[in-house]
Design goal:
By secondary structure, this protein is mainly α. Among the domains are: 103 residues, MazG-like (Helix Hairpins, Orthogonal Bundle), CATH 1.10.287.1080; 27 residues; 48 residues, no CATH class. The chain is 71% helix and 0% strand. The chain is built from 13 helices and no strands. Helix 10 packs antiparallel against helix 11. The radius of gyration is 25 Å and the shape is globular. The protein starts with a helix and ends with a helix. The model has no long low-confidence stretch (mean pLDDT 90). GO terms for molecular function: ATP diphosphatase activity. It catalyses: ATP + H2O = AMP + diphosphate + H(+). Keywords: Hydrolase. It comes from Paracoccus aminophilus JCM 7686. Belongs to the nucleoside triphosphate pyrophosphohydrolase family.
Length: 273
Amino acid sequence: MSDFTPLMQSGALPEIDRLRAIMAVLRDPEKGCPWDIEQDFATIAPYTIEEAHEVADAIEREAWDEFPAELGDLLLQVVFQAQIAEEKGMFGFDDVAKKINDKLIFRHPHVFGSENRDKSAEQQVKDWEAIKAVERAAKAEKGVLDGVALGLPALTRAVKLQNRAARVGFDWPGVEDVMDKLVEETAEVIEARDHKDQAALTEEFGDLLFVMANLARHLQVDPEEALRAANTKFTRRFRSIEAALAKSGRRPEDSDLAEMDALWDAAKEAERA
């Protein structure tokens, strides 16, 4: 019988233990997979982000048959990173689980402690932020913007930075002020384009996106969610163009902008019907 038989047979071990054991074998210098052995924290991080997005994608598409597998792919990332850390003598998977267990209990005193759980959603948010402030202080995070992860999607990070600044009063008074700033930043993008200064154009375009994130925040819109929805809508309508052209045996490259624009409008009208 193979030394790996318990790992290859579902049910031979609790599945989380089986996954951790499989990961340990894959990382084994003598028995493991060369690719897995070569990885480190930094090389695995992009896959972690990608798998998190694929979980979100499955939810967005309501692809519930794919959902367990996508969550499994994300769980693998945690197990993989914890395995690397354990090999380095830093911490192990149980330490990871303990950290999140302790954090959840600490952040929910109205459930696990003596606080009253009969609170408004607004009060819950305020209490949550106060608890997180205590955690940041324990990490010696003294700056208002400390602890906002660099690896977040840029739009999400922009909103989090703006929210942090807003807590100490550094914020536009209202939506109209943000709209005025949007006009100003748009003019600066145009000016940089006209001067054919690519570095300045990149900077000004970044400023414009940052203001757009601020506008989303003031309108209580999640910019990442809004952009994902716009991407989905664009994909759906462009596929309608492809389908319409395919009826006459053509592809988009066989068409022109005027025809495709008309087909786009037709797709929009069909969605409204």
